[in-house]
Amino acid sequence: MAITPMLIGTTPALGQQQATAVAIPSPPVIDGILDEDFWLDIEPVTGFRQREPVDGAVATERTEVRIAYTPSALYFGISMFDSEPEGILGNILQRGGWIDKDDNVLIAIDTYNDGRNAYLFEVGSLGTQDDALISDETTQDWNWDGIYTTETRITKEGWFLEVEIPFTTIRFGDAEAPDMGIAFVRSIRRKNEQVYWPHIGQEYRTGIRQVSRYAPLAGLRNLQKGRHIEVKPYLIAGVESEEATGTNQDTDIGLDVKASVTSNFTVDLTYNTDFAQVEADNVQINLTRFNLFFPEKREFFLERASLFQFGASQEAEVFFTRRIGLEADIVGASRLTGQTGPVSIGAMSLWTEAVPSPDPATREATVPAAWNNIARVRGDLPGRTTLGAILTAKETNTGHNRVAGADLVSRFWSSSSFFLWGANVWDADVSKTSGSSFAGQAELILQNDLYLFELTRTHIGEAFAPDLGFVRRPNQKRWGGQIGVRPRFETSSWARQLSVILGSNWIEGINGRKQSHLLQLSNRLDFQSGDNINLRVTERFERLETPAFINGRKLPVRDYTFRRAQIDFSPDRARGLGVNGRVSFGDFWSGTRTQVGGGFVWIVNKHLTVDTDAHWNNVSLPVLEGDFSTTLLSTRLEAALNRKLFAYALLQWDDVSNEFQANIRVDWIHTPGSDLFIVLDTGYLTDALNDPRDTRWLRKTGVVKLTYVRAF
Question: Residue 33 and residue 642: Cα distance in Å, rounded?
Answer without folding.
Answer: 20
